Amino acid sequence: MSEMQYLEHRLAELADPEIAVHSARFFKTGPGEYGEGDQFLGIRVPELRKLVRQFRDFTMEDVLELLHSSFHEKRLLAALMLVDRFQRGSEADQQKIYDLYLQHISVSINNWDIIDTTCPHIMGAWLYERDRFILYTLAASNNLWQRRAAMMACFYFIRQNDFADSLKVAEILLLDKEDLIHKATGWMLREIGKRDREVEERFLEKHCRTMPRTMLRYAIERFEQEKRKYYMEADRQRRKKLS
């Protein structure tokens, strides 16, 4: 039995039809929804992480086969394998994985959980000490997943208390029409605030009257009640003027 055959056997053992049905609803796979047509096996992420360690000897060709699968969990597993290889690899290995990852955003890396779980650890880590212009290209893309990746890559920088590019990308995404972008941007602003509240509040004072409500709510989630009321009132007044 080949490694791929054994992995397929393990995936079949772990698959749960009830979880698959729930996941298909949760990840919006219906007609016209962001995950339209995606298929699920019904496997939890912790189980996939165990498989990453178990199948570290997979060839890159096998990883790519998983990455091109129509099943969500196989693509997520492949992306997690790429993270593991990136973190253990040489600089040359890391560049190849980064380039591969970038090529597959929106093609196979095409849902928010895959991006959120892996993008900071590959794109963010690779770009941390390099030119970050690609983030601005992705942030201006017409593709939802490329824009989400631009914001989520910044999570790596934020964890290093490096906020400048995160705030610039957030400004580009302020008027985005997609709820998934509002949530990611608000989340990253909240992460900045956990490390430096003053930096986040300067951004909010400048933009709270124009940013989408969902983005604002995510950004102020950890604020004390009175501060949350202050920002939500600013949003309410703005909406009142527009009505």
Structural features, described:
The chain is mainly alpha-helical and 243 residues long. It has two domains: 111 residues, Leucine-rich Repeat Variant, CATH 1.25.10; 116 residues, Leucine-rich Repeat Variant. 71% of the residues lie in helices and 0% in strands. The protein contains 14 helices and no strands. Helix 4 packs antiparallel against helix 5. The protein is globular, with a radius of gyration of 19 Å. The mean pLDDT is 95.
Index terms:
single chain, 243 residues, mainly alpha, Leucine-rich Repeat Variant, 2 domains, 14 helices
Distance between the termini: 65 Å
CATH A-level architecture of the largest domain: Alpha Horseshoe
Enter the CATH topology name of the largest domain: Leucine-rich Repeat Variant
Low-confidence stretches: none
The overall pLDDT, averaged over residues, is 95
SSE topology sketch:
Layout lengths: L2 H12 L2 H10 L18 H10 L5 H8 L4 H17 L2 H14 L7 H16 L5 H7 L4 H16 L4 H9 L6 H17 L1 H11 L5 H7 L5 H18 L1
Care to give the gist of this entry?
The chain contains 14 helices and no strands. It is mainly alpha-helical.
